[in-house]
Amino acid sequence: QVLLVESGGGLVQAGGSLRLSCAASGLTFSYYGLGWFRQGPGKEREFVAAKSWESWSGSSTGYADPVKGRFTISRDDAKNTVYLQMDSLKPEDTAVYFCAARYGRTWPGAESAQYEYWGRGTQVTVSS
Predict the structure, then answer these.
(1) 62: Cβ contacts below 8 Å, ≥ 6 apart
(2) Which of 3, 28, 78, 123 is 20 to 30 Å from 92 at the Cα level?
(3) Of 16, 34, 19, 36, which Cα lies nearest the Cα of 96?
(4) CA 88 to chain centre
């Protein structure tokens, strides 16, 4: 059984930082591209960031425009964990954040339908 479990959410003031973690089990983690998505109040789920598998030459990373320069996705294959470092947080970043996994070597993309496994999410609330 594949499990993805997010942690690290919470309440933070605008301008602050949080680091989300997503621990995976039940899959060969290094074979998967990983993504973070979020769903704000009354909004549809949207792409945040994604990172491909780590090859000998490195990996591919992509970000949604609203978070570029503020968020950083990283992965630790030895720990089966993907992270999302969120800096300079804004009230509009308030959402439930989900991690997702997609099998394959290419960059997993920004479309949620392409991901096979999902966590249940962690709440991030940014106060003004």
Answers:
(1) 49, 50, 51, 107, 110
(2) 3
(3) 36
(4) 17
Q: Are strands 95-103 and 122-127 parallel, antiparallel or unpaired?
A: antiparallel
C-alpha 66/C-alpha 95 separation (Å) is: 13
Structure confidence by residue, pLDDT tens digits, 1-42: 999 999 999 999 999 999 999 999 999 999 999 999 999 999
List, in sequence order, every residue forming a beta bridge with 62; answer none if it has no partner. 50
> Which tens digit of pLDDT belongs to each residue from 105-115?
888 999 999 99
Token code pair at residue 48: 């945040």
What token pair was written down for 41?
């109040």
Q: Which residues pair with 10 in a beta bridge?
A: 124
DSSP label of 113: G
